[in-house]
Amino acid sequence: MPASSANSPLLSLLVLALLCSPGAQVGITSDEFTDDARIKADFESRLGALFEAGGIQTGSETLKQLHRENAGPIPLPAMPAAAPVPSQTAIYDRARDATLVLGHLYLCGKCDKYHANLAGGVLISPDGLALTNYHVLDTREGIVFGAMTSKGQVFAIDEVLASSKKDDIALIRLRDAANLTHVPIREAVATGDELFVISHPDGFFHSFTKGYLSRKYLTTADKVARLQITADFAKGSSGAGIFNTAGELVGLATATNSIYYDKGKESPGHLQMVIKSGVPISSIRRWLESQPEPQGKLP
Question: Which residues pair with 277 in a beta bridge?
Answer without folding.
Answer: 228, 255
